[in-house]
Design brief:
The structure holds 2 protein chains of 2 kinds. By secondary structure, chain A is mainly alpha-helical. Helix content of chain A is 79%, strand content 0%. The longest helix of chain B has 32 residues. Chain B is mostly helical. Classes of the chains: A mainly alpha, B mainly alpha. At the A-B interface, helix 2, helix 3, helix 4 and helix 5 of A face helix 2, helix 3, helix 4 and helix 5 of B.
Chain lengths: 126, 138
């Protein structure tokens, strides 16, 4: 049994029962993306066209791999929310919208899983 | 009710439609922010592909690197970097607006122009650095 009043439970949640969750999450990941993608751009510029051995040696440093994985997670969350808003703004058929939202989640998840696996494999070697 | 219906079916003024509304820099930057976001969304495939190739084999990695080094590949990469920089600057602008600051018309116009001008300058600067570092220019 909850000790909170009904008003306390409802406050800030709105009709969707998540309230400003997406708003806040989009800004938190945006802040992370700003810092981490600046790092990633520098890394990619230095590694573009490099031999695989060089890429592996660079990603072997834990901090490099950790920063990349953090970026991938933050980016995937950010782009999933962003695309969800776009779909909800422009697609009005319920069925199509649901399918696209599902596809959006799968896409963001696939990008994240593929990228994280690749970074881990490159970082751990072999 | 008989008197009300004719009035309702009369041609009412509509809100200005996007196609006849004079474009203003802040609304253009708003939709460009969404477009660059969408471009980055699909562009994320390139990053995942590059990492996947590196994790697969030296041969496949060389193949993907070779594709990026072609002219069409380079054009895509320049576009990708501009989209990233523009979207990042647009995000910074939104952080400023989120605090409630710089919401007067003058500041809105200034920040919107700054987004497009700085994004082009920074992209040019980034690729100039790459060109000099790689010795593309003599």
């Amino acid at each position: 049994m909850s000790m909170t009043t009904p008003l306390k439970r409802a406050r800030g949640l709105g009709s969707a029962h998540e309230g400003a969750g997406h708003f806040v999450k989009q800004r938190v990941t945006a802040a992370a993306n700003l810092i981490l993608s600046a790092f990633a751009v520098g890394l990619i510029v230095s590694l573009a066209g490099a031999e695989l051995a060089t890429v592996k040696a660079t990603l072997a440093h834990p901090l490099v791999a950790i920063a990349l994985i953090a970026l991938i997670v933050s980016m995937a969350v950010h782009m999933r929310i962003g695309m969800q808003v776009i779909i909800e703004d422009y697609v009005h058929g319920e069925g199509t919208k649901m399918l696209l939202l599902l596809g959006n989640t799968f896409f963001a998840g696939a990008i994240a899983v593929v990228s994280i696996f690749a970074v881990l494999k490159l970082s751990f070697g072999s | 009710m008989a008197g009300v219906t004719p009035a309702r079916t009369r041609q009412r003024p509509l809100s200005p439609h996007l196609q006849i509304y004079r474009p203003q820099i802040n609304m253009v930057m708003s939709i460009v922010h969404r477009i660059t976001g969408t471009a980055l969304y699909f562009g994320a495939v390139l990053m995942a592909w590059w990492l996947f190739a590196a994790a697969t084999s030296p041969h496949y990695f060389a193949f993907v690197n070779g594709l990026f080094a072609t002219w069409p590949g380079m054009i895509v990469l320049v576009g990708f970097s501009w989209a990233l920089i523009h979207h990042a600057l647009g995000g910074l602008r939104h952080f400023v607006w989120d605090t409630g600051a710089a919401l007067d018309i003058g500041s809105v116009d200034l920040l919107s122009w700054a987004t497009i001008v700085l994004s082009v300058l920074m992209t040019a600067g980034l690729w100039l650095y790459v060109a000099i570092e790689r010795g593309w220019m003599h």
